[in-house]
Write a structure and sequence with these properties.
Elements lengths: L1 H7 L22 E8 L5 H12 L5 E7 L22 E8 L9 H17 L26 H27 L15
Antiparallel strand pairs: 1-3, 2-3
Organism: Lactuca virosa
GO molecular function, one term: oxidoreductase activity
Keywords: FAD, Flavoprotein
């Protein structure tokens, strides 16, 4: 439901949905996010560790767990660039916000970032690996930046799209944006 978008943006669910068409009416998110995918159930002992870690936060954190399954597995992981399909149980978004902070470099913001990174490290045994998968819409510059060569770009690119899809996206980018006009620290590279 579109009302969930309102709530996600910190608005009451009773807010008229037309507000979503007004870009200036919605505050920009000021946060740091990390994501993971889970292929095997997290044991109760792991859930307890995660819960204890969440309690240590200063109420700036959001942990969102999205269940997967159903029709997701009906499509090959190379059918479209989004590869996180068959065998995936959950997608996890971990976020800390910088509300009340003028930047992400204040002592409070840096403490929140350190806490998020420690939560990410704590979750390592319970999430996908080889590579540890991540969702491309939750850009995480901690995964790496740069695209001077495939080795450099693959550090983050294969986590978002896996190897075959990442190579396919590189070929497509070379055709539609050969001069790399559309770029950012984790853009699909042009070689």
């Amino acid at each position: 439901m579109v009302q969930s978008t309102l709530v996600f943006w910190g608005l009451p669910s009773s807010t008229p949905t037309q507000i979503l068409t007004n870009r200036s009416a919605i505050a920009k998110l000021n946060n740091k996010s990390k994501s993971d995918y889970v292929r095997t159930p997290i044991p109760v002992s792991g859930l307890r560790k995660i819960w204890r870690k969440l309690i240590q936060n200063d109420e700036s954190a959001l942990l969102m767990i999205n269940p997967f399954g159903g029709r997701m597995a009906d499509f090959s992981e190379t059918a479209i660039p989004y590869p996180h399909r068959a065998g995936m149980l959950l997608q996890i978004l971990k976020t800390v916000d910088f509300n009340g902070q003028p930047s992400d470099t204040t002592p409070t913001s840096l403490r929140r970032i350190a806490w998020l990174r420690s939560l990410d490290a704590l979750m390592t045994p319970y999430v996908s690996n080889n590579p540890r998968e991540a969702y491309s819409n939750y850009n995480d510059l901690d995964l790496g930046v740069g695209s001077a060569n495939y080795e450099e770009a693959s550090v983050w690119g294969e986590r978002y799209w896996k190897r075959d899809n990442f190579k396919k996206l590189i070929r497509m980018k070379a055709k539609v944006d050969p001069h790399n006009f559309f770029r950012r620290p984790q853009s699909i590279p042009v070689f």
